[in-house]
Fold this sequence. Notes:
By secondary structure, the protein is an alpha/beta fold. The protein is 42% helix and 18% strand. The chain has 16 helices and eleven strands. The protein has helices at 3-13, 46-51, 53-63, 72-79, 94-97, 103-114, 118-122, 143-157, 175-184, 195-208, 248-258, 280-285, 295-301, 316-332, 334-341, 343-361, and strands at 18-22, 25-29, 37-40, 66-68, 165-169, 187-192, 214-218, 231-237, 259-271, 307-314, 366-374. It has a seven-stranded mixed β-sheet with strand order 7-6-5-8-9-11-10. A four-stranded mixed β-sheet has the order 2-1-3-4. The chain is elongated. The N and C termini lie far apart (55 Å).
Amino acid sequence: MGGNFIAEYLGNIISVCFTVETEGEKIKIGNGEPLFNVTIKKPIKKTELITSTSLALGEAYMRGDIELDKDLYYVLNLFLGNMAKFSTDEHALKGIIKTSVSKMNQKKEVSSHYDIGNDFYKLWLDKSMTYSCAYFKDGNEDLDKAQEDKVDHILDKLQIEEGMSLLDIGCGWGALLIRAAKKYKIKGLGITLSSEQAKGFSETIKKEGLEDLLSVEIMDYRDLEKSGKKFDRIVSVGMIEHVGRKNYDLFIKNVHSVLNDGGLFLLHFISALKEHPGDAWIKKYIFPGGMIPSLREIINILPDYNFYTLDVESLRRHYNKTLLCWRNNFNGHREEIEKMMGVEFTRMWDLYLAACAATFNNGIIDLHQILMSKGINNNLPMLRTV
């Protein structure tokens, strides 16, 4: 591809001044002092860019065909607010954009991300292995404290009391249930589709001596309704993004089926301002089959299952900070990760963390917590407690 075309193409989606160096030519885009330089080491096909901007640029960066002279997050943060200008040919990308929501396929998709290996995630997550948005109460705490505060924030909203039963749908490595059991002696069940997470959680339960209070099962949320189980409280953190747009109603239906009348459910999820099919690069390389719901489409389902919305909170900027903490930890172990996973994987994962941080910062995506009750509960405090 000619240098002028790539420069013009990038100039259409990047509104600040920068330079493009390609095929021995350095081209300035925009007015003023350039904020960064992009070096194109290998030409990018015009057809690939037109099919998907994010795939073409993302894959070129993974391969090392694109290099920047400034920090990756700094550059992405300057223009990812303009993602509406990206090219996306949904027909050509239908195999990536539209995937099966069958149980078998969704388990495979979840495993592709979360079963990379516990040793990998231990390198850059906090000590509790919490892989979701942290909660920075004063902004100066470290990631370990912020993740602990996030769990407490959720448990406070759920108004957990000693002896209650608590279900965590998509429990990860179990940090929330472990803290709930230690603080409130709840009876807790965690369900996940990740064998690595289930293994890690099970080991922690034994290590902490919580076998009488906690258990973990590899279970699809669709099997809850027929399980015969009942819970006083239910929480789901960062899981509904994996069920697919067609199954949001089914997810809420299954939650309803196992929650006691008057019980509380807290749904914590990455959200979008409007409904969107998703980003092709993220869906191909990071979260196959992932789908980010809009806040309104989730809210609209709740009345059909007699769920009363009690509180909605945005934690968008908290997730930006969380991702920057993860990326800092990740790059602090970059040499080790390259040896473990390879250079291309490492560049891919760094791009994922930096791009997500930039999209949260630019409001392309958000993070919401919805607290709801199954039916009317007049025994709850009349004022916000958190």
